[in-house]
Amino acid sequence: MTGEASLAAPAESGWVIAAATLPFPPVDSSGEHIQDAPAERWSTAFAQVVREGFAWVDLTDSWLRPGDLSPARVSELAEVLRQEALRPAAISLIRRSVIDPESGLDNLSYSLRTLEVAAQLHCSTVSVGLHRPLTSRQREALWFWTVDEPHDAQDPETWALAVERLSVLGRHAADLDLLLSLEMYEDTLLGTAASSVRLVTDIGLENVGLNPDLGNLIRLHRPIEPIEEMLELCLPHTNYWHMKNYYRIEDSSSGVILSAPTSMELGVLNYRHAVDLAIRHGFSGAFCLEHYGGDGLGVMSTNLRYLTAILQSRKA
Predict the structure, then answer these.
(1) Sequence-separated (6 or more) residues with CB below 8 Å from residue 216
(2) What is the rounded CA–CA span in Å between residue 279 and residue 281?
(3) Are 55 and 85 in contact (CB under 8 A)?
(4) What pLDDT score was predicted for residue 149?
(5) Is the pLDDT at 6 greater than 60, yes or no?
(6) Residue 297 belongs to domain spanning
(7) What span, in angstroms and rounded, lies between the C-alpha atoms of 123 and 251?
(8) Cβ(188)–Cβ(97) below 8 Å
(9) Can you give the three-state secondary structure of 188-208, one letter per residue?
(10) CB-based contact 192:128 (threshold 8 Å)
(11) Among 111, 139, 195, 290, which is least packed by CB within 10 angstroms?
């Protein structure tokens, strides 16, 4: 698989398991943006990731935008990662839809720049999605996914535009020996299992696959597709995997559906089964652990131990 050579995993697990930088705020209490902060500030965050047991990181751009760094600052970033003995597995672009009616072309340019930086940092993968920036109502909510957001149009023209622009990214990623992974997310063209598989199939590039972040779907306070059916459809096309889990309560008598974040082990998605199924379908990419709420990095560390044990048990 394209990009596989850069995924030499730690011997203790045989797999790449990365920490998302999602739990770190992009602006500190003094109002300083991490994007403009000295490299020492980046090092402080990376040191925490290492102390929690991670050897790999996903440079989630809700914290730091590598694609918007100058060449000199990209070099600083590479040096800080080297000093902390932390290897970048991927860069994940959050809410940078290339078909956004207002900023799609800007997002396409940003995504192309990020691919270039990912290659310079020796990442294997760039993950992109079609979800849009949070609305003011979503930012005010305790959990943003409980508030409705803009939906992708479902007409043939929008579909063709998504295929065209994601293909541009996919071809450039292939030129850079990178995987491009499409993150599943509600109410987008990657919002259902069938639509996600169709989009990857229509793009038709070997290095473009799915990021089956089913946590984005199982947390919704509304009916969802059966989890097993989503896994069966999506895992054969998976080349990168954001992992997080949620409690989900459905009261059929009242119609109430509620969710809350939890560890991978305790949530409604059975990751022991899902990981086994993915590997049987040929998955060989990297895993990325995410979590919202509370001590996100601490929960991700718990999930690292859980996932490592699952992967090791398959070799026993």
Answers:
(1) 145, 183, 184, 185, 186
(2) 5
(3) yes
(4) 85
(5) no
(6) 4-313
(7) 44
(8) yes
(9) CCCCCHHHHHHHHHHHCCCCE
(10) no
(11) 139
